[in-house]
């Protein structure tokens, strides 16, 4: 790239190296936009972008490299700077800079591709050891480590991700329970009848299900999770 091109380039910063942030980089590369932009990507996670949709396959043998959305050298060879393990903690709009714990970086254009974060219900004790979320490769490492010394697991939330997490816990040989706040499993996707069919179908997976369990009816007890539902008065205690 000529010195003239570099001088006329704008600084484009992308915050977030998830599926969307990575797709944007691919589009920029494929469409020749790097002629106009010098691109820097910040990723809070230590891994380069990976296929989060297939995250659970990590428990059935896939690793970070096979889930990755590109080769390890893709960013470098494309001329894009990827800064992993570096979270943006502030956007200084008046100075047009993003701030991380490692420095300040000027931008002309800024894209936020930061995705979403798991909602953790305000259940007393939700900050205890062994109370984990299911979203990143590091989360799955933490779950796997916690499972090594456990015999039981409770998944709070019986939606798509909750059932996927429950299947993962079962795969880790944990006696698994699912607690759902609504009156059926997957309440966003199916009606009552569908929820009943689903529960029947999943029975053979040997989960225990508790529904109609409002967050206020739950408490995370030490040393592991105890989940109970006041409405159904059924109680499940890990041993
Ligand atoms: C287990 C699982 C299964 C799923 N299955 C499906 C499915 O079957 N179908 C489907 O459509 N969707 C599914 N999803 C949802 C799908 O993964 C998300 O919709 C998709 O990943 C969103 O992409 P994104 O790039 O917007 O966000 P993300 O993939 O969340 O990426 C955002 C990235 O930005 C980083 N970041 C956030 N803040 C900062 C910051 N301040 N500085 C630097 N980096 C930051 C985050 O660490 C993250 O790496 C699933 C999700 C999970 C967890």
TrEMBL record:
Gene3D superfamilies: FAD/NAD(P)-binding domain
Pathway assigned in UniProt: Nitrogen metabolism; nitrate reduction (assimilation)
SUPFAM superfamilies: FAD/NAD(P)-binding domain
Coiled coil: none
Keyword Heme: yes
Name this protein carries in UniProt: FAD/NAD(P)-binding domain-containing protein
Originating organism: Vreelandella olivaria
Keywords, ordered alphabetically: Heme, Iron, Iron-sulfur, Metal-binding, Oxidoreductase
FAD/NAD(P)-binding domain boundaries: 11-204
Cofactor(s) needed for function: siroheme
């Amino acid at each position: 790239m000529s010195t003239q091109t570099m001088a006329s380039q704008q600084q484009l910063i992308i915050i977030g190296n998830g599926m969307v942030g990575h797709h944007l980089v691919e589009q920029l590369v494929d469409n020749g936009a790097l002629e106009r932009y010098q691109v820097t990507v910040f990723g809070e996670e230590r891994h380069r972008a990976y296929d989060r949709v297939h995250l659970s396959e990590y428990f059935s043998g896939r690793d970070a490299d096979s889930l990755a959305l590109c080769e390890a050298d893709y960013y470098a060879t494309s001329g894009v700077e990827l800064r992993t393990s570096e979270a943006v903690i502030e956007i200084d709009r008046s100075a047009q800079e993003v701030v991380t714990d490692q420095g300040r970086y000027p931008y002309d254009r800024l894209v936020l591709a930061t995705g979403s974060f798991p909602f953790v219900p305000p259940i007393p004790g939700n900050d205890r050891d062994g109370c984990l979320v299911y979203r990143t490769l590091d989360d799955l490492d933490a779950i796997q480590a916690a499972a090594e010394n456990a015999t039981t697991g409770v998944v709070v939330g019986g939606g798509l991700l909750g059932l996927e997490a429950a299947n993962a816990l079962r795969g880790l040989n944990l006696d698994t329970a699912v607690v759902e706040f609504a009156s059926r499993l997957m309440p966003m996707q199916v009606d009552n009848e569908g929820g009943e069919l689903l529960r029947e179908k999943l029975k053979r997976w040997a989960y225990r299900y508790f529904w109609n369990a409002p967050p206020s009816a739950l408490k995370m007890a030490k040393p592991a999770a105890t989940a109970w539902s006041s409405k159904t008065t059924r109680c499940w205690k890990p041993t």
